[in-house]
Write a structure and sequence with these properties.
Blueprint: H1 16-28, E1 35-38, H2 44-55, E2 60-63, E3 84-85, E4 90-91, H3 94-103, E5 110-113, H4 117-121, E6 128-133, H5 139-149, E7 153-161, H6 174-184, E8 188-194, E9 197-202
Parallel strand pairs: 1-2, 1-6, 2-5, 6-7
Antiparallel strand pairs: 3-4, 7-9, 8-9
Helix pairs in contact: 1-2, 5-6
The structure holds magnesium ion.
The site of magnesium ion has 4 residues, from loops.
């Protein structure tokens, strides 16, 4: 797996093992449908998935409003001052995201969608090979991501969810809750857990 860029140089919270898993999943689904991720931030997960898309002639839709999740806001634990647009008084990870795509030479396989997940889903009408959910960690955000996008995954395709912590002492519940929803839906079978990346396959 040659990503054409050092992923460790990209801001973000994805472990290399999780990234490698995303890459291999995206390779597998190339004949099923396009890939879609929610929560691109600065493009760390994007380069793993998009590299597979480049190699397999597929496309990645990369959804993020680029105003940061709760934990990225000014004064919060994961705030990054480099990503704060002083003029707008808001977070802006899109400039950094675009820079990542250019450096990694992935502009031609990624469709950035700068909008909330709910808005992007409103008129969506395309079957998908893979959905990677790494958006907001509030209960509402995670539920919206799951309910908006999971139904589009085609048989044989994958649903991957980041920050799934089976033990509540390790982290927030929202991603784990939607993981359980998927598991109990009867539509998915659990495939693997790499660090905090849960993978389910559409039956
Ligand atoms: Mg995450």
């Amino acid at each position: 797996m040659d990503l054409g860029i050092d992923p460790q140089a990209i801001k973000g919270f994805l472990d290399p093992e999780e990234g490698a898993r995303l890459y291999s999943l995206a390779c597998e689904v190339a004949d099923i449908g396009p890939c879609l991720e929610i929560g691109s931030y600065c493009g760390k997960s994007t380069v793993y998935i998009a590299r597979a898309c480049l190699e397999r002639d597929n496309v990645l839709f990369a959804i993020d409003h680029h105003r940061g999740s709760e934990e990225h806001q000014l004064g919060e634990q994961y705030h990054d001052a480099d990503l704060f647009d002083n003029q707008a008084g808001l977070m802006d990870s899109f400039r950094e995201f675009r820079k990542t795509l250019i450096l990694a030479k992935l502009v031609d396989v990624v469709v950035p969608v700068v909008a909330t997940s709910a808005l992007a889903a409103r008129y969506w009408n395309t079957r998908l090979g893979m959905v990677f959910i790494d958006g907001g960690h509030s209960w509402e955000a995670a539920q919206t991501d799951y309910r908006s996008w999971a139904p589009w995954i085609q048989p044989g395709g994958y649903l991957a969810i980041h920050d799934v912590f089976p033990n509540p002492d390790d982290g927030g519940r929202a991603p784990f809750d939607i993981y359980q929803l998927a598991e109990q839906s009867g539509l998915f079978t659990v495939q693997s857990m790499s660090k905090t990346l849960a993978v389910l396959k559409r039956v």
